[in-house]
Specification:
By secondary structure, chain A is an all-alpha fold. Chain A contains six helices and no strands. Residues 5-13 of chain B have low confidence and may be disordered. The chains are: A mainly alpha, B mainly alpha. Chain B: Belongs to the bHLH protein family.
Chain lengths: 195, 92
């Protein structure tokens, strides 16, 4: 593993205590961030294990990964706010669908129609979301912004509404959190598989 | 040069300078996985953005793959010993 968490060897023979303290503080901050990540994700995982039917687990676990990542990062980052907003919107849509299903179950409706209705609603939502994203007013592009930035905007949550400078900053933070989340999930897979 | 002209126009309207942007781009470059293999030569910013997009896409794919494996393992594993192992590793 790379030495990201360990303090690098000091070049001078008498390392200043301030530098050591800063390194220790940085390591402690990182490990506390990792602990927050693990806390949110494990809490979600245990709920999924109890509640979620097996066929929906993969999708739910993936969404829980992004939600817990965003929750651990907190609301001070634009990408985490965007992810939490998406999760909230998804829960609201699910509530509407459940209500609709309950109402149609009260009045006898064909099962295929109910299931197809769910898929059609999901497709309609994604196309509506895509249409909304296309018609959204984009922030003015800066003069020096390379064309690659558009692909980056699509990848980073909430990237559509950012200026180029904030996009770069948010991307770095999103990348670090994504990497930590992947490391956490890989560690869990290792833990679960060899016992 | 046109870049100089546009820079002076920008510095009047916004406080974001080219230096800040190149600083952010170099921070992104340091996050990339190949940054440790290469010596820290500055890659062109378009290359950095492209590599960042590829890296984010590969991380998304890893999250999907790990979610699938986790869902399989949740179904089959023994939860109590797994929980004990997790708590032990978190408290270390």
């Amino acid at each position: 593993m790379d030495g990201k968490r360990t303090t690098p060897p000091h070049p001078n023979p008498n390392p200043s205590s301030a530098a050591l303290q800063a390194g220790a503080a940085a390591a402690a901050a990182e490990s506390s961030k990792a602990r927050m990540l693990a806390f949110h994700f494990l809490r979600a995982l245990s709920r999924i294990h109890r509640v979620t039917p097996v066929r929906r687990r993969t999708r739910t676990i993936r969404r829980a990964a992004y939600s817990s990542m965003a929750r651990a990062a907190g609301p001070r980052r634009a990408w985490s706010r965007a992810l939490l907003g998406q999760a909230r919107a998804r829960r609201a849509r699910r509530a509407v669908l459940v209500r609709r299903r309950v109402l149609t179950a009260a009045a006898p409706a064909p099962a295929a129609g109910g299931g197809g209705g769910r898929f059609i609603a999901a497709g309609g939502e994604t196309s509506a979301a895509a249409a909304a994203a296309a018609s959204r007013v984009l922030p003015p592009r800066q003069a020096g912004e390379p064309p690659r930035a558009d692909a980056l905007r699509r990848l980073v949550p909430g990237g559509d509404a950012m200026e180029y400078c904030s996009l770069l900053d948010e991307t770095a933070d999103y990348l670090r959190s994504l990497r930590a989340q992947v490391q956490l999930m890989q560690g869990l897979v290792d833990l679960f598989s060899c016992q | 040069m046109s870049s100089r002209r546009s820079r002076s126009r920008q510095s009047g309207s916004s406080r974001i300078t080219d230096e800040q942007i190149s600083d952010l781009v170099s921070k992104l470059q340091d996050l990339l996985p190949e940054a440790r293999l290469r010596s820290n030569d500055r890659m062109p910013s378009s290359r950095v953005l492209q590599e960042t997009c590829n890296y984010i896409r590969s991380l998304h794919r890893e999250v999907d793959d790990l979610s699938e494996r986790l869902s399989e393992l949740l179904a089959t594993s023994d939860m109590s010993s797994a929980q004990a192992a997790i708590i032990r590793s978190l408290l270390m």
